[in-house]
Amino acid sequence: MTVKKLIQAEIDRIPEQELDNLYQWIKEFTDKINSVKNGIFSSQNIPPETLETAEKHLSNSYPYHDLDYLAGTWTKEDETEFLLNTQQFNQIDQQLWQ
User: Cα(27)–Cα(20) distance, rounded to whole angstroms?
Assistant: First the structure.
């Protein structure tokens, strides 16, 4: 059985009063497919001011760089101290699980 016949069999099971809703849904679906195929959503069809606004918001998405200088500045001693102080987090308290 082809996909088209399977779809037709499902449509035949839908009550008559619901067919208008199905038609609207199918129409919206095919319109979206056709608009994507025809390139309606390409950047050429978007007004320049919309693109500028989008770029402006994108550049403000990550404004916090005030702590960047701290990244990757741990010494070997800092790492050792951190690992020793957090070692207890790797232990399981058997009494909690009884």
Answer: 10
- Report the domain count for the chain: 1
> For 25-58, how does the pLDDT look when each residue is reduced to its tens digit (9 = 90+)?
888 888 888 777 666 656 566 677 776 676 666 6
pLDDT digits (tens, 9 = 90+) for 60-73: 556 677 777 777 77
Q: Is 35 helix (H, G, I), strand (E, B) or coil?
A: helix
By residue range, what is the domain housing residue 16?
Answer: 3-97
Residue 67's SS3 state is coil
CA distances from 87 to 72, 73, 79, 92 (A): 21, 21, 12, 11
